[in-house]
Amino acid sequence: MTTITKRQLRTALQGADLPALSDADLARWFQVSQSAVSQWDEDQPIPRLRALEVALRRPDIFGASGSMPEAANDDGEVA
Questions:
Q1: How do residues 5-57 score in pLDDT, each as one tens digit?
Q2: What pLDDT score does 19 carry?
Q3: What is the structure's pLDDT at 46?
Q4: Contact, 31 vs 70, CB < 8 A?
Q5: 8 A C-beta contact, residue 79 and residue 70
Q6: Percentage helix, strand, coil, to 5, in the chain?
């Protein structure tokens, strides 16, 4: 699965005629707290389960591979 950054997510979901999406907008979209979204760095991948949710909810934008992203172990290595 391709990684998605918060910046890429904002750009893809906002559309051409909408203002830039805030952390509060993304939090509503994911149905999580704004403080959770604010912890995601703009140019780092969003949490993998959220990335999977994005791919499943918006396959027209991000595609849905039908498989889970590779899991990393505690050392950050792909298992």
A1: 999 999 888 875 567 789 999 999 999 999 999 999 999 999 999 999 998 98
A2: 72
A3: 94
A4: no
A5: yes
A6: 45, 5, 50
Local structure of residue 75 (DSSP, 8 states): T
Question: How many C-beta neighbours within 10 Å does residue 41 have?
Answer: 10
Query: C-alpha angle with apex 11: 8 to 13, nearest 5 degrees?
Result: 105
Angle at 55 between CA 9 and CA 26, to 5 degrees: 35
What's the token pair of residue 38? 């604010």
Is residue 11 a contact partner of residue 43, using CB atoms and an 8 Å limit?
A: no
